[in-house]
């Protein structure tokens, strides 16, 4: 993707002036950074994608580091399921594998972070395949499914990983803000739980997202219509996680 951010100013100034400049930044929905001219000059965050407000404001220097020089960290995106075993399907017969293959490709185009996409060979080999890519953190892309009526967004993490939980919470907040579905929260899992094997044996912090129930027609419609926004939100979390 093209550059989505630009600096407010290139002027050199005193540390006090730089701190004041940092306070007077807000995000527009277009993704650009503009000075905050509102009364009081307080920090306002009107993030792109329906006013995501979960990320603390970062300084201009930090923005340059992320968006101009690029991140030196690596994120692995794990495609849930595989072509021969594609997971749950939507009312229009789109599988988890198909949906998340497209989502991963879009995220990779949007992020400034180095992203490696890993496909499942076998369930048992998947953690080793992820570890071989040597990521700083990883995100597994799934969709939920139950009884065609359950609704909402949730993110799973290994219950022994504080960093995994923190990553899960950032992703959950972003996903809920974008999709507007019920917030089912972040859920810690043991190794024997559903999804727990991957979460336990990937060495880096890892979170498994289930942004909507693919078998619920209403949930799926939201996920399909807001797929680009979902990719943008996840890409932004990845970039900020890469600082």
From TrEMBL:
PANTHER family listed in its UniProt record: AUTOLYSIN PH-RELATED, N-ACETYLMURAMOYL-L-ALANINE AMIDASE
Gene Ontology molecular function, alphabetical: N-acetylmuramoyl-L-alanine amidase activity
Domain MurNAc-LAA residue range list: 127-239
Record's GO cellular component terms: outer membrane-bounded periplasmic space
Protein name per UniProt: MurNAc-LAA domain-containing protein
SMART domains named among the record's database cross-references: Ami_3
Gene Ontology terms: biological process: peptidoglycan catabolic process
Gene3D superfamilies: Zn-dependent exopeptidases
Region of interest: Disordered: 1-24
InterPro entries given in the database record: MurNAc-LAA_cat (IPR002508), N-acetylmuramoyl_amidase_3 (IPR050695)
């Amino acid at each position: 993707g093209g550059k989505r951010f630009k600096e407010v100013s290139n002027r050199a100034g005193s540390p006090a002036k730089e701190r004041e400049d940092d306070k007077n930044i807000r995000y527009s929905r277009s993704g650009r950074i503009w000075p905050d001219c509102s009364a009081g000059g307080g920090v306002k965050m009107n993030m792109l994608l329906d006013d995501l407000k979960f990320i603390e404001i970062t300084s201009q220097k930090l923005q340059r580091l992320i968006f101009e020089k690029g991140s030196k960290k690596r994120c692995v995106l794990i495609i849930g399921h595989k072509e021969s075993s594609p997971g749950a399907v939507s009312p229009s017969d789109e599988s988890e594998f198909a949906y998340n293959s497209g989502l991963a490709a879009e995220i990779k185009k949007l992020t400034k972070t180095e992203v490696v996409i890993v496909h499942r060979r076998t369930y048992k080999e998947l953690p080793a395949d992820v570890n071989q890519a040597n990521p700083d953190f990883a995100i597994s892309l799934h969709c939920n499914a139950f009884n065609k009526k359950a609704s909402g967004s949730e993110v799973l993490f290994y219950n022994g990983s504080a960093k995994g939980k923190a990553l899960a919470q950032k992703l959950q907040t972003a996903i809920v803000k974008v999709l507007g579905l019920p917030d089912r929260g972040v859920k810690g899992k043991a190794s024997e739980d559903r999804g727990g094997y991957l979460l336990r044996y990937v060495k880096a912090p890892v979170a498994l997202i289930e942004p909507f129930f693919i078998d619920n027609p209403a949930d799926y419609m939201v996920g399909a219509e807001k797929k680009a926004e979902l990719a943008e939100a996840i890409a932004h979390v990845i970039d900020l996680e890469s600082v």
